[in-house]
Design goal:
The chain is an alpha/beta fold. Helix 7 runs antiparallel to helix 8 (232-244). It has helices spanning 42-51, 69-72, 75-81, 94-98, 104-111, 121-133, 202-212, 232-244, and strands spanning 3-6, 9-13, 16-20, 23-26, 31-34, 61-63, 86-90, 141-143, 148-149, 155-159, 168-172, 177-179, 185-187, 190-192, 219-222, 226-227. It has 2 domains: 3-100 and 136-244, Metallo-beta-lactamase, Chain A; 103-135. The termini are far apart. It contains 8 helices and 16 strands. It has a 6-stranded mixed sheet, with no helix packed on it. Strands 9-10-11-12-15-16 form a 6-stranded mixed sheet, with no helix packed on it. Strands 2-3 form a two-stranded antiparallel ribbon. GO terms for molecular function: hydrolase activity. It catalyses: 3',5'-cyclic CMP + H2O = CMP + H(+); 3',5'-cyclic UMP + H2O = UMP + H(+). Residues 19-224 form the Metallo-beta-lactamase domain. This is Metal-dependent hydrolase. Counteracts the endogenous Pycsar antiviral defense system. Phosphodiesterase that enables metal-dependent hydrolysis of host cyclic nucleotide Pycsar defense signals such as cCMP and cUMP.
Length: 245
């Protein structure tokens, strides 16, 4: 029996209440976490996992959709606490997660410094220092587009670049479930591109949404927004139309 648990984690960030939705996949042999939140989120993750009737030390694998701070924040801490966890990411994304390449978010933030007004620069510099403080962690296994992992009834890797070059989504054919990561988000009940102003390649991000239409999606899970309520295929089609018309 395969299970898909949504870990809706509520917290406060920048004086605003927010929710992220990592996903926990479970079969007879493995417990797989998809993304893990901000730095220092291990206690929040532990609470959410216990709420599913499991424990953090039962996690065998951790799939990272991309190297944004809210997806890899406690990864190094988790690997230290639970050395058996195997970390999996796209081959393009792996060096950023491991710290052998400079974070693309740091590069992006640094590139805006010269055009910011002087009174905005201290806050921007503080944000850059925060990004730089995220501890790198080794990736144990890299994956490529269309690769099928054998766990939990099969997990197909869907390379969905745009938000970041190595971003991946996951398709579970057994349940026709798509774990979108940040390929799309839910805002006020509607699908949208995640933070279009910060997406590294918006045109590529829209092409990635179009690629998702190749899959028979009955259930759609967004890292920001959780379960999508409604016709996922129609909503993806509408989103592509909004950005290309």
């Amino acid at each position: 029996m395969n299970h898909c648990h949504l870990l809706d984690i509520e917290f406060e960030y920048s004086e605003q209440k927010q929710t992220i939705t990592p996903v926990l996949l479970q079969d007879e042999k493995d417990v797989i976490l998809v993304d893990c939140g901000y730095p220092d989120f291990v206690p929040l993750l532990e609470q959410a996992v216990i709420g599913c009737g499991l424990r953090l030390d039962s996690i065998t694998k951790l799939i990272v959709t991309h190297h944004d701070m809210d997806h890899i924040g406690p990864l190094a801490a988790l690997k230290r606490a639970f050395p058996r966890i195997e970390t999996i990411a796209h081959e393009v994304e792996a060096p950023y997660i491991a710290g052998t390449k400079k974070s693309l978010r740091v590069e992006q933030a640094e590139s805006t410094l010269d055009v910011l007004p002087e009174d905005a620069k201290p806050q921007a510099e503080q944000f850059i220092r925060f990004l730089q403080s995220i501890e790198p962690a080794a990736v144990d296994r890299t994956v490529a587009d269309r690769e099928r992992l054998p766990w939990c009834g099969g997990i197909e890797i869907v390379h969905t670049p745009g938000h970041m070059p190595g971003h991946i989504s996951l398709y579970l054919p057994e349940s026709r479930t798509l774990i979108a990561g940040d390929a799309v988000v839910i805002e006020q009940g509607k699908l949208d591109i995640a933070n279009p102003q910060f997406t590294l390649d918006l045109e590529e991000a829209v092409r990635s949404v179009r690629r998702l239409l190749d899959y028979d999606v009955e259930r759609l899970i967004c890292y920001h927004g959780g379960w999508f309520q409604g016709d996922a295929k129609q909503a993806l089609l509408q989103l592509v139309h909004e950005y290309t018309s």
